[in-house]
């Protein structure tokens, strides 16, 4: 993932410093997320790990994601289709946003420096201490537009 080099090692260090012991399920989830380029659901993680021959329960995937989210190692966002999506948070703070097709549910990541500057300026004007942001755009992908 762009901007998340060393994320798996960073995640394990933060978990250890927070009192978590190494766990097979949590390690499997960390390894999987470290290989991803965009957000994925808990169900997708579970299916992929099972297809790799890992014996991991869906509850373990959710518990692992919850621990990672609580430590701000993963971000969770709602693409509007009923299930949250998760992706690694780069230790550097680099991130991307998402465009979601409302018909086929395909997700495309995007980066936009001008949007980031506009959000930074907005953060200076609001009376909140902004800790982060996520932008999710909705529409129809090129394939669905052609149909």
Brief rundown of the structure:
The protein has 147 residues and is an alpha+beta fold. The protein has helices at residues 7-17, 24-34, 42-51, 58-70, 113-125, 142-146, and strands at 40-41, 74-78, 84-88, 97-101, 107-110, 136-139.
Topology:
Blueprint: H1 7-17, H2 24-34, E1 40-41, H3 42-51, H4 58-70, E2 74-78, E3 84-88, E4 97-101, E5 107-110, H5 113-125, E6 136-139, H6 142-146
Parallel strand pairs: 4-6
Antiparallel strand pairs: 1-3, 2-3, 4-5
Structural class: alpha+beta
Overall number of strands: 6
Q: Helix count?
A: 6
Helical percent range? 40-55%
Fourth-tier CATH superfamily name of the largest domain: Winged helix-like DNA-binding domain superfamily/Winged helix DNA-binding domain
CATH topology description of the largest domain: Arc Repressor Mutant, subunit A
Count of separate structural domains? 2
Q: Supply Rg.
A: 17 Å
Could you tell me how far the N terminus lies from the C terminus, measured between alpha carbons in angstroms?
32 Å
Q: Main beta sheet: strand number and arrangement?
A: 3 strands, antiparallel
Mean pLDDT: 90
How much of the residues is beta strand, in percent?
15-25%
